[in-house]
Amino acid sequence: MSTRSNRRALLMGRAPQDTPGSIWNYVVLVGIIAFFAFPLYWMFVIATGTDADLANIPPKVLPGSRFLDNVREVFGLSEVYFSASLINSFFVSTITTVSVLFFCSLAGFAFAKLRFKGRNALMVIVILTLTVPNQLGIVALYIVMGKMPSSDGTGWNGTLAAVIVPGLVNAFGVFYMRQFIIGSVPDELIEAARVDGATTLRTYWSIVVPAIRPALAVLGLLSFVTSWNDFQWPLITLGGTEFPTSMVALSDLASGNYVLYRRVLAGAFLATVPLLIMLFVGGKQIVRGIMEGAVKH
């Protein structure tokens, strides 16, 4: 009966009324969102309180009034360099994201639409690299970065170049772009561009890139978040320097015999804000990319 009413409302130009089933769907979705958003809210509550608030029973569930004081305390620590770490993380994440979008989409286009000898074998090798844990290559990567040419002869370890260069391209991005290009760019468009005299790079830029913008948005967000949250390798190559990334600076905040959690969580909240901004900015493109990937062309 409710379905007939909704159909009649649509025919008469009115908005259909929510059925009890759809209302429960909203309730469940709101509950899931609240469940996953609560840690972020609790982090903000602790960041706005004092040391004594942590010992309250029952604990406080409303934000306090000391958030700006805790933030000033975080930025005022001379041994952490938190402001510089945020700038470094933004610089590293931006460069690696732009590089991943360009090189991975270009390689994905080559694997998807170009015919060359050994294409399938190379793609298998790229996929197999995804099965190798990053931790297995840390020692080798540290040795390689230490032998890179530099002005002082000590290599790239301890510099942002050691963090940026290994993340300029990744196997997941190549595989993801290849699969998306296969399904979203018809071969007829590539052949038509070649008949018109377009070069391979011209075809990539004018035909492929406009068609894969949703996938680029998804890959860009994933790359930015991955680079921003990377901790192990920046800790190894930048630990102890005056120019760490935000995750390394947060570990410095949490070190010591006595940890001030209000200060640590204030820094963690500040380090989370850029990721939330990226999510809000690219949210529509992410949904569009997921929907286009689910629809058969």
Automatic annotation (TrEMBL):
Main location: membrane
InterPro entries: MetI-like (IPR000515), MetI-like_sf (IPR035906)
One example of a Gene Ontology biological process annotation: transmembrane transport
Domain ABC transmembrane type-1 span(s) in chain numbering: 86-282
Pfam family, one: BPD_transp_1
PROSITE patterns: ABC_TM1
Compartment list: Cell membrane
GO annotation, cellular component aspect: plasma membrane
Membrane topology: Multi-pass membrane protein
Keywords of the record: Cell membrane, Membrane, Transmembrane, Transmembrane helix, Transport
SUPFAM superfamilies, per the entry: MetI-like
Transmembrane segments: 21-44, 86-109, 121-144, 156-176, 204-225, 260-281
Family, per entry: Belongs to the binding-protein-dependent transport system permease family.
Protein name: Cellobiose transport system permease protein
